[in-house]
């Protein structure tokens, strides 16, 4: 699990490595080891140790799929016409109870078609997975995470008072939080974020380091936000644009993990410190921590997407989301930097909506406002 400063990627073969993607940034855990009380600091150190063991175990794995079974390249973008014609719906959910232990996936509690389990966390994970699936299927013609009906495996109650949620290349898992720093991880933007890391993985991948890693995180944030807006019917001007809203503990001075509207303002707390995300390339953070600041510098492309949505109005899953999804399918560059990604979104906007379209012109303006000229 990506819980400490060193890379959690294991370069075990010729393909893009599939790291553990966690919602809580490593810099938060590092701060907790220094600023938290004795119990909190101890728990943070234990999670960092867990990460080290996970990296070692991960280095032995070489069989994780990067693309749908049998595919040699990422699936091509599915056009609106193809969506109307097309895909078979294969929603298949399985929610397990980890019983506060480390083993995954744990005890199966609710399978596809089962009624409510009586465990609020199980049922939240089950219902939220459908909301994420519905977005990708209805708006992008994508049948589950891999585009081919992959079972959506989730584990709740992972480990005891575990302060994180993650995608491990095959499934999602959610800790309960310690009730002090974090209250829960079962929040729709978090679940959408983690599942969207899987979408990136099965669309060719983005190396989880530096700017390509920040783009990986940003895509997950963008679609975590879109999932929440799609499920509630929120337009871009009514959304709060927060990732992880209400997962922070009751005594933490903050509203969320990240803000796409105003990167750097999500929290300011005596224990957690100040949200370090920049909104502009002038404030890009060069660091060896967090795989080169993947959870930090993602604020820049996040803010570009937010600005574009404000220019466009309406719903984020319409033209802005279509452009971002199309760009991911077309990118074919796992080491892409911010300028590569901005250029690809521009090409996608022009391909979808016209070279001289206002859609493309406004996108160029959004990138310029975060310091990226395309």
UniProtKB/TrEMBL annotation:
<comment type="function">
    <text>Extracellular zinc metalloprotease.</text>
</comment>
<dbReference type="GO" id="GO:0006508">
    <property type="term" value="P:proteolysis"/>
</dbReference>
<dbReference type="InterPro" id="IPR023612">
    <property type="entry name" value="Peptidase_M4"/>
</dbReference>
<dbReference type="InterPro" id="IPR013856">
    <property type="entry name" value="Peptidase_M4_domain"/>
</dbReference>
<dbReference type="Pfam" id="PF01447">
    <property type="entry name" value="Peptidase_M4"/>
</dbReference>
<dbReference type="Pfam" id="PF02868">
    <property type="entry name" value="Peptidase_M4_C"/>
</dbReference>
<keyword id="KW-0479">Metal-binding</keyword>
<keyword id="KW-0964">Secreted</keyword>
<dbReference type="GO" id="GO:0004222">
    <property type="term" value="F:metalloendopeptidase activity"/>
</dbReference>
<keyword id="KW-0378">Hydrolase</keyword>
<feature type="active site">
    <location>
        <position position="194"/>
    </location>
</feature>
<protein>
    <recommendedName>
        <fullName>Neutral metalloproteinase</fullName>
        <ecNumber>3.4.24.-</ecNumber>
    </recommendedName>
</protein>
<feature type="domain" description="Peptidase M4 C-terminal">
    <location>
        <begin position="205"/>
        <end position="372"/>
    </location>
</feature>
<comment type="similarity">
    <text>Belongs to the peptidase M4 family.</text>
</comment>
<feature type="active site" description="Proton donor">
    <location>
        <position position="295"/>
    </location>
</feature>
<feature type="domain" description="Peptidase M4">
    <location>
        <begin position="105"/>
        <end position="201"/>
    </location>
</feature>
<dbReference type="InterPro" id="IPR027268">
    <property type="entry name" value="Peptidase_M4/M1_CTD_sf"/>
</dbReference>
<keyword id="KW-0482">Metalloprotease</keyword>
<dbReference type="InterPro" id="IPR001570">
    <property type="entry name" value="Peptidase_M4_C_domain"/>
</dbReference>
<keyword id="KW-0645">Protease</keyword>
<keyword id="KW-0862">Zinc</keyword>
<dbReference type="InterPro" id="IPR052759">
    <property type="entry name" value="Metalloprotease_M4"/>
</dbReference>
<dbReference type="GO" id="GO:0046872">
    <property type="term" value="F:metal ion binding"/>
</dbReference>
<dbReference type="GO" id="GO:0005576">
    <property type="term" value="C:extracellular region"/>
</dbReference>
